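Memo to structure team: turn this sequence into C-alpha cells by end of day. - J.P.
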Amino acid sequence: MIYTILPTVLFMLASFSSSKTSFSEPKIIKPVVYAKMVAISDETKIEMAYNNLHSDKFALPKLESFAVALKGYYSLKEKGLIKKDILTLIDFSLSSNTKRLWVIDLISGDVLYHSLVAHGRNTGEEYASNFSNAAESYKSSLGFYSTGEIYNGKHGMSLRLDGLEKGVNDNARARGVVMHAADYVSNSFIKNNHRLGRSQGCPAVPAELSKEIISTIKGKSCFFIYHPSRAPKFGAKSIS
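Reply from structure team:
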C-alpha cells in the first residue's frame, strides 16, 4: 500500500513546488525615460545641413549664401511652392570666371554639380552688380525661383523658371528667363576673353552639363540666385 501511495505524494509535492515557483513576485520593469525633445532653431538646422555637405570632387558654397538659400527653401517647401529636396544655388558675389553654381541634394548632402554660369550682359562684366525684373533689360534677376518644365528652344533643351518674389523676379517666365546651354559658358571663352560670356538675363550653363543639370532640377525644385546686396531682403516678397 505504501508503495502505491508514495508516488502520489511525490507527485503532489512536485506540483506544489512548481506552482510556488510560478506564483513568485513578477519582476518590476521600470518605464523607459526618453530624452526631452528640444526644438531646433533654423540657425542650428542650417549649420547641421552645411556641415553635412560633402563632395569628393567639388568645392562647397560659402556658408553665407547657403544659409540664405536654405532658409528660403524651408519656407517655400512649407508653402508647397516647391516639391523636390534639390537646391540649385548661384552665388553672384563670385567672379564669373569661377564655378558659382551648385546643385545640392538636401537629403544626402551630396553636391551633384558645380558649374560655371552666366549672368546678363547688362548685369556686369566679370562680376554681377546690376539686376532687374524688367523685360528687355538683359539683366539677371535675383531671388528664389521654382523650376518649371523642359522645352526645346533655340538653345536646345531648356528649362523654364518661375520667379517667386513679387517685383524682384516674378516676370521671369514672361521675359523668357530660362536655363539653357551656351558655348560662351566655357573655360576656353574665359581664356580668350578674360571673362565668361554673358546672356540676355538667363542663367546659361556649359553645353556639356546642361542636359544633366536640367534633368535633375526640373519640376518644382528650389532655384536661388544670391547676391549680398540683397541678402537681408531675400524671401521677403515671396508669393504666399
